[in-house]
Amino acid sequence: MLDVAVIEEPAAAEASLDPIRSGILAALAEPGSATILAARLGLPRQKVNYHLKELERHGLVELAEERRKGNVTERVYRATAASYVISPIVLAAVSPDPSRSPDQLSARWLLALGSRLVQEVGQLLTGAARAGQRVASFGIDAEVRFASASDRAAFAEDLAQAVAALVGRYHDESAPAGRSHRLVVGLHQIPAPTDPRGPAAGTTGSTRTTPQPEAGQEDQR
After folding, report:
1. pTM of the entire structure?
2. Where are the beta strands (DSSP E) in 31-143?
3. C-alpha 77: how far from its chain's center?
C-alpha cells in the first residue's frame, strides 16, 4: 500500500468522491471482504460489492487474497493507498495557471502555485511508480509567529533575498546534463482551528504564519 496515491483520471476522481466509496476506501485501511465492510459500514453487502467493483475498476482498491469458505470464494480487498490526492490535471481546462498573473502578495497566486505543485509532483510519482524508481525531492515545513505585520514583511524580504542568492549560486543554464527543478516558497496564515472558516482577512498578531517551501522536484527523462 502506498502512503499517498495521486488520482489523475476524471472517472477515478468521480468514483473517489462518492460518499459511500470514500467510506469504503477509509475502511479498507485494513483489508476486508464485502461482507466485512458491510458490517463495518452498516450497508447491504450487495451495495458494498457493487461499489467495490467500481473502485477496483478505477485502480483505487485491489484484490489482496481469495479465501475459500465451503463452496463460496470470499474476495478480500485492500485500498491501493493510505490516502489519495486528486490532481488538478483532472480539471486541466480550468486549472489555475501561475504564469497568468504572478503576484507575490496574492493568496490566489499562491494557491495556483500549490495547484501546479500537486500536478507536477503527481505526474512525477505516477511516472516513477511505473518505472519502479524514486522521485528526487526535498521539502521544508516550518511555523513562525510574527509580532507584527512589519516583521512579517521584513521576513518575506529577507527570505526572498536568500532564495535569490541561492538560485543565483547554483543555477547553471548551460549545464549539458543538468535537470531543471522547481522551487516554490509560500507564506500564509494558518487557519484558526476553532473557526472552520479560517481567520478573517487582514488579521495579524494572534494568527500564525507558516513558510512552506517545496524544493527539488526532479523531472523524468
Report:
1. 0.73
2. 32-33, 61-69, 72-79, 81-86, 138-139
3. 24
Backbone angles phi, psi at 198, to 5 degrees: 85, 175
Q: Look up residue 215 and give its three cell numbers.
A: 524544493
Residue 219 — very low, low, confident or very high, per pLDDT cuts 50/70/90? very low
Identify the bridge partners of residue 209 per DSSP, sorted by sequence position: 144, 189
Secondary structure (3-state) at 21: helix
187 neighbors 211 (Cβ within 8 angstroms): yes
Residue pLDDT, tens place only, 85-112: 999 999 988 988 898 889 988 999 999 9
**pLDDT, tens digit, for every residue of 147-180?**
999 999 999 999 999 999 999 999 999 999 899 9
Measured between alpha carbons, how far is 48 from 38 in angstroms, rounded to an integer?
A: 6
Rounded distance between C-alpha atoms, residue 6 and residue 139, angstroms: 18
Q: Is 176 helix (H, G, I), strand (E, B) or coil?
A: coil
Q: What are the residues whose beta carbons fall under 8 Å from the beta carbon of 196, sequence distance 6 or more?
A: none
CA-closest candidate to residue 77, choices 57, 58, 46, 56 = 56
